[in-house]
Design a protein that fits this description.
Elements: E1 6-15, E2 18-28, E3 33-37, H1 44-51, E4 59-64, H2 73-77, E5 80-83, H3 95-106, H4 112-117, H5 133-145, E6 151-155, H6 163-178, E7 182-187, H7 190-196, E8 199-204, E9 207-212, H8 214-219, E10 225-231, E11 246-252, E12 255-260, H9 263-276, E13 281-287, H10 291-303
Parallel strand pairs: 3-7, 3-8, 5-6, 6-7
Antiparallel strand pairs: 1-2, 1-4, 8-9, 10-12, 10-13, 11-12
Length: 304
């Protein structure tokens, strides 16, 4: 059995009377993208900082690549890549100087092709302080992976990026995963987590309230299926009959939308009604709940 790259047991971190992380348990395996989701203040960044050796936890056992980040942080530095939520390079440092500096620190050759790939080819001589927020984040990612670490921590890596840069970043993350790199991704972007992550952990008020693959998480809970229907003569208007297993319904633009606990029965009844009315089906879509919808459901459950 393959040993986990990362193990967390009972992690707890407080700031005075504020509990930032409360009894969190996590594992991550080689070549896995593990997403951490949660609103601001949920404990995502604090969890990452404890794993990176930047903060000392108050309780719990942490193992990162077989090392204790609290006691062996220096030995861990060469084996992990870290993209912090906020970069802190000197404003007067040039982009190519930053690449050379980090390469020297890790005792590897600079990888200027990473700058080219992440859209920084024309910024090699630019000062860090002259870069936009998105460019600073792209530079931070290049510096985090230049030494080919087996484990990379990414804290909101696509915040402030344009669409093209986001697509390129996602492609790079997928390549790293295929190469066997483990990525821990903290993000607010539900679609990003659903697209990239093998497993997702949802943090609320410092507690891990859900953990599993995006497919698993969206298949539990209320498990409503969204059925969107558009017909030529709008026979599913307000005076249409009630359909079986429908939890709620709404009209949106030219579509009748039903949330069903049994989509098979609902769709069969809808099609029978459309045919009986002599109407013609234009569009029918049956969709599982998105990760964002499931996240909102979990958030509402925890708030009760």
């Amino acid at each position: 059995m393959v040993e986990p790259v990362l193990e967390v047991e009972g992690l707890r971190k407080t700031y005075g009377e504020t509990v930032a992380v409360d009894d969190v348990n996590l594992t991550a395996h080689p070549g896995e993208i593990l997403g951490l989701l949660g609103p601001n203040g949920a404990g995502k960044t604090t969890t990452l900082e404890c794993l990176e050796g930047l903060r000392r936890p108050d309780a719990g056992r942490l193992s990162v690549l077989g090392l204790d980040p609290t006691r062996q942080a220096r030995g861990l530095c060469d084996r992990i890549g870290v993209q912090l939520q906020t970069s802190a390079l000197p404003r007067s440092m040039r982009v190519d100087e930053a690449m050379g500096f980090f390469a020297a620190y890790h005792r590897v050759a600079p990888r200027y092709e990473l700058l080219d790939r992440l859209g920084l080819a024309e910024k090699r001589s630019a000062l860090f302080g002259e870069l936009s927020v998105g460019q600073q984040r792209r530079l931070a990612l290049a510096l985090a992976v230049l030494h080919n670490p087996p484990l990379v921590f990414l804290d909101e890596p696509t915040a402030g990026l344009d669409v093209a840069s986001r697509v390129e970043l996602h492609a790079l993350m997928q390549e790293l995963r295929v190469q066997g790199t483990t990525l821990i991704l903290a993000t607010h972007d539900m679609a990003e987590a659903e697209k990239l992550a093998d497993r997702v952990g949802i943090l609320l008020r410092g507690k891990l309230v859900a953990l599993g693959s995006p497919r698993h998480l969206t298949s539990v809970g209320a498990s409503w299926t969204k059925v969107s229907v558009r017909t030529e003569n709008d026979c599913l208007a307000a005076d249409a009959p009630a359909f079986p297993e429908v939890i709620r319904q709404q009209a949106l633009e030219e579509y009748a939308i039903y949330y069903s606990s049994n989509p098979g029965q609902t769709v069969s009844a809808l099609l029978a009604h459309i045919e009986a009315q002599g109407d013609r089906l234009i569009d029918l879509r049956v969709e599982r709940p998105s990760l964002e919808e499931r996240f909102l459901e979990i958030t509402q459950e925890e708030a009760r």
